[in-house]
Specification:
Elements: E1 4-13, H1 17-29, E2 35-38, H2 79-100, E3 109-111, E4 114-119, H3 121-134, E5 144-146, H4 149-155, H5 157-160, E6 168-173, E7 177-179, H6 181-194, E8 198-200, E9 203-210, E10 216-222, E11 228-238, H7 244-251, E12 260-271, H8 274-277, E13 283-285, E14 299-305, E15 308-318, H9 331-334, H10 341-350, H11 352-363, H12 366-376, E16 386-389, E17 393-400, E18 404-408, E19 411-415, E20 421-426, H13 434-445, H14 447-460, H15 472-485
Parallel strand pairs: 1-2, 1-11, 2-8, 4-13, 11-20
Antiparallel strand pairs: 3-7, 4-6, 5-6, 9-10, 10-11, 12-15, 12-16, 12-17, 13-14, 14-15, 17-18, 19-20
Pathway: Carbohydrate metabolism; tricarboxylic acid cycle; oxaloacetate from (S)-malate (quinone route): step 1/1
EC number: 1.1.5.4
GO molecular function, one term: L-malate dehydrogenase (quinone) activity
């Protein structure tokens, strides 16, 4: 491949849901801009966006307890859960607009009840408080609560069969979804390339450097044959998942200094046994073990991938120094810099429970993993379940004035002050909130164009810039309209 010196308008690094979402937005806002996507693997959506590398939960905080932790005084507030749900509503609107325009089929998303299930007296008291805080919130309309084994059996039989009469409780809502982010990502990239964007597969970006003209020069190597080339771009988005940290560090922007990455791997149990699959139609989240990261909250999920339904349980967290599933064993040590060694050491000091938890998970036998499944599903038999390896997640570590460094669970956009380069670090809720994340990025990186773009974006996402939970009638209307457009209701 020969070098190209004519700068592209936009280069997107990484073939996942974030690049697909941002590229789709930019192409509608500026159809005259040139867009090129570089993906290091032979297909898009092979890392975190792959359906078997994530749980496919449309994260709307309907069932995830980590968005509503119990405070020291025992109180439970819905603010974070409402915020996450508001963000997911923006994603639903964007997808439904594309579907209404005939640009996106809806096979990637399925209506799937979301449940929370807990055991033990203290956990039951907590879930009761959580339900009380959510039941009157418009975005959580219709959520149900029960401590009755018979009612919970109707919602999810596999949770009750073979269970003793211990204290249990569950919530249930029909507003939940299962999302195949791999299928969605592929569909968005297909639309991008049909409208003129270039998708370069098997091309790994090795470094990013500022040019004298103020653009960015990317050194790229084709992974088949190791053929190198360079390309210049006016704007670069680093959506390379765990690979984003290294590339942002190579750019030399001040904003990335002090950031580090903490990689966490994982596994799931999966079954395709039709007798079991037929008895469970829900995503059921429990409570995380002490010291466990939020992404390791145990859950028993219905999954629909390529039209086939299966059940998934996990995740079982572990540790690997790789930042990507197809990454290098040198990813973690190679990310250490003088500016982030302090925050990384501070995180290690303050997260001994997490270290202990990860070591325990790493050493856990298959029998121990099966026992964890049986706490959810007492009748589970090992022969019905296979272990699959999930995707790598890299949690953000960054400077903190008081503690020296903090481990942040969530996502963070890191952008240069001039807005010419930006990247995304972190993990969950990630894919589910790709649309609001990319809206924030566009406003930060393109302030001069934002005034012209905002009306166009509101055509796709009508409630952008407003909230729904404080408008009950509007919330119900938007949920109903997007559900119809996405094929989630009759």
């Amino acid at each position: 491949m020969s070098d190209s010196r004519a700068p592209l308008d936009v280069v997107l690094i990484g073939g996942g849901i974030m690049s697909a979402t941002l590229g789709t937005m930019i192409q509608r806002l500026q159809p005259d801009w040139s867009i090129r996507i570089y993906e290091s693997l032979g297909e898009v959506a092979r890392e975190s966006s792959n359906p078997w590398n994530n749980a496919g939960t449309g994260h709307a905080a309907l069932c995830e307890l980590n968005y509503m932790p119990e405070a020291k005084d025992g109180s439970v507030t819905p603010d974070k859960a409402i915020s996450i749900n508001e963000q997911f509503q923006l994603s639903r609107q964007f997808w439904s607009s594309l579907a209404d325009n005939g640009e996106l089929t809806t096979s990637f998303i399925n209506s799937t009840p979301h449940m929370t299930f807990v055991r033990g007296g203290d956990n039951v008291k907590y879930l009761r408080k959580r339900y009380a805080a959510l039941k009157d919130q418009p975005l959580f309309s219709g959520i149900e609560y029960s401590e009755d084994h018979k009612v919970i059996r109707e919602w999810a039989p596999l949770l009750i069969k073979g269970r003793t009469r211990e204290p249990i409780a569950a919530t249930h809502t029909d507003l939940g979804t299962d999302v195949d982010f791999g299928a969605l990502t592929n569909a968005l990239f297909e639309g991008l390339t049909e409208r003129g964007a270039e998708l370069w597969l098997n091309c790994r970006v090795k470094s990013i450097r500022r040019t004298g003209e103020g653009n960015w020069r990317l050194k790229v190597k084709h992974t088949v044959g190791n053929t190198p080339h360079t390309v210049d771009a006016r704007f670069v988005f680093v959506g390379a998942g765990g690979g984003a940290l290294h590339l942002l560090q190579s750019s030399g922007i001040d904003e990335i200094k002090g950031f580090g990455g903490f990689p966490i791997s994982g596994k799931f149990f999966r079954t395709t046994n039709p007798k079991l699959v037929a008895q469970h139609q829900a995503k059921v989240y429990g409570k995380a073990a002490v010291g466990a990261p939020p992404m390791s909250v145990p859950h028993l999920d219905t999954r629909v991938v390529n039209g086939e339904t299966s059940l998934l349980f996990g995740p079982y967290a572990g540790f690997s120094p790789k930042f990507l599933k197809k990454g290098s064993w040198w990813d973690l040590p190679g990310s250490i810099r003088a500016g982030n060694i302090g925050p990384m050491l501070a995180v290690a000091r303050d997260n001994l429970d997490l270290m202990k938890y990860l070591i325990g998970e790493l050493l856990a036998s298959r029998a121990k993993k099966l026992k964890a499944l049986q706490e959810f599903m007492p009748t589970a038999k090992g022969d019905d379940w296979e272990l699959i390896t999930a995707g790598q997640r890299v949690q953000v570590m960054k400077k903190d004035a008081k503690r020296g460094g903090v481990l942040q669970f969530g996502t963070e956009v890191v952008a240069a002050s001039d807005g010419t380069i930006a990247g995304l670090l972190g993990a969950s809720p990630g894919a589910s909130t790709a649309v609001p994340i990319m809206l924030d990025l566009l406003e930060r990186c393109f302030p001069q164009q934002w005034g012209e773009w905002e009306p166009k974006l509101k055509e796709l996402i009508p409630t952008m810039g407003t909230t729904l939970n404080d408008k009950p009638e509007k919330a119900a209307q938007v949920i109903a309209e997007t559900s119809k457009a996405l094929g989630l209701s009759d």
